[in-house]
Specification:
Layout lengths: L1 E6 L8 H11 L4 E6 L6 H5 L7 E7 L7 H17 L4 E8 L8 H14 L2 E9 L1 H29 L5 H17 L1 H16 L5 E5 L4 H18 L5 H4 L8
Parallel strand pairs: 1-2, 1-3, 3-4, 4-5, 5-6
Helix pairs in contact: 1-7, 3-4, 5-6
The chain binds flavin mononucleotide.
């Protein structure tokens, strides 16, 4: 079984789509090809992978309640290509969005479903994930926790000769358990979809989110975006910046 995984995020680094794609690949198995779709230069290379594949998994962000335009351009070409070559692949989708409700990805899922109908492809269903940015941060926090554990272990060996500092391990287990809990919905639905991709069956449309209460999400999201805007050039940058004159 050959599956093509397409990362449709236009970001070069640290995109949430790469995280979810990594997880989906873990739970899918078989022969896997991973492609990045950012510019029209990527189109021919990705299309060349399609003949002989059993399934395509698109992993992409939600933009303005829909599919990012650079992915739409590719889908137009893919439609023509699949019709010309009489390909009947299964298409699965993992969409993530910044707001907390994964269900906001429903219009995007419908667009993919229509795309499959038009292209003669088999719609396999998908997973819509809310709080994608925050879930992406949890993987970075997990790596930071591993780093802290290694550092504490080294310090403990140097100071006391103890190789297994109990407090450091307990604190690591506590943080890792919490991060794992936030990701449980995503893990469950991606494992489930992995089974369907392997079997070539319909997985349905499933929606999940970071598992924290909405009021906590809003608080952390506000703090996060204040910090990001400070790093990106200051608060209210967009409002106060001099606007360029639009030509006729
Ligand atoms: C142009 C643009 C439009 C967006 N529109 C939405 C939206 O309609 N709803 C939403 O919840 N998030 C929206 N977002 C947030 C992204 O979906 C979110 O940041 C996502 O996690 C990005 O995924 P990525 O890191 O894989 O690119 C938008 C982001 C951008 C840059």
């Amino acid at each position: 079984m050959k599956t093509i995984f397409i990362n449709g995020s236009p970001k070069q680094r640290f995109c949430a789509s790469a995280y979810f794609l990594f997880l989906q690949k873990l739970f899918t198995g078989g022969q896997q090809v991973t492609e990045k779709l950012r510019t029209p230069q990527d189109h021919e290379r990705i299309l060349a992978q399609l003949p002989g594949a059993d399934a395509v998994v698109f992993c992409l962000p939600l933009y303005v309640d829909s599919i990012p335009s650079h992915v739409l351009r590719f889908m137009e070409k893919m439609e023509a290509f699949c019709k010309e070559k009489s390909l009947h692949l299964h298409v699965y989708v993992i969409a993530n969005n910044g707001f907390i409700e994964g269900r906001q990805n429903e219009p995007l899922m419908q667009a993919f479903e229509h795309f499959c109908t038009r292209s003669g492809l088999t719609w396999g269903g998908g997973v819509g994930i809310g709080g994608g940015v925050m879930l992406n941060v949890t993987r970075i926090l997990f790596l930071v926790n591993i780093g802290l554990l290694v550092l504490n272990t080294l310090l403990s060996v140097i100071r006391t000769g103890i190789l297994f500092p109990k407090d450091a391990w307990l604190s690591f287990a506590e943080s890792a358990g919490m991060l794992l809990y936030f990701n449980l919905g995503v893990l469950f639905f991606l494992i489930r979809m992995g089974v369907h991709i392997r079997r070539g069956t319909f997985s349905g449309k499933k929606y999940t989110r970071i598992l924290i209460p909405s009021f906590v999400f809003i608080l952390f999201a506000d703090i996060f975006f204040v910090i990001i805007s400070l790093f990106e050039g200051g608060l209210f940058r967009g409002w106060l910046a001099k606007k360029s004159e639009l030509s006729d």
